[in-house]
Amino acid sequence: MKQSRNNYLEALGIPDFLYSKIYSDKETSTSSNIILVEFKSEISFCEPGECQDLLIKMLASIELNLGNVDLISIEKSMVDEFIKSNSSKVILVMDSSFGSNEPIYFSTHHPKDILKNSKLKRESWEVLKKIKQCLK
After folding, report:
1. What domains does the chain contain, in order, with CATH numbers?
2. Taking Cα atoms as reference points, which of 46, 34, 23, 38 lies closest to residue 96?
3. How far apart are alpha carbons 99 and 15 in whole angstroms?
4. What is the pLDDT of residue 27?
């Protein structure tokens, strides 16, 4: 449903900065145990490419795949509202500047940043290990 909405708005020529794109293989994003959130970016892990390939490898390292997660690309100003309205077990914000004291919210580096600086892999791996523990 949400993907068809995105396609409809794109077909009408409505610029994507006027709405939040929501990418999901599932009908509802609230049914997933884990949601990966990125802030609007020219290089998105929601689109096929190097960034998504790295994300797939990151997920595989904790025994997940794209079918186990929902990918969300939203404006940074909307993230708090989105998180409050979501009942997922884990929410991972792919932006290291995001912080929360809630135990189900995690943040790490976006795959595009890791591709630019491989030294960020270690920090991201530590977060992924915590997520794996949380999902058990």
Report:
1. 2-135 (3.40.470.10)
2. 38
3. 29
4. 40
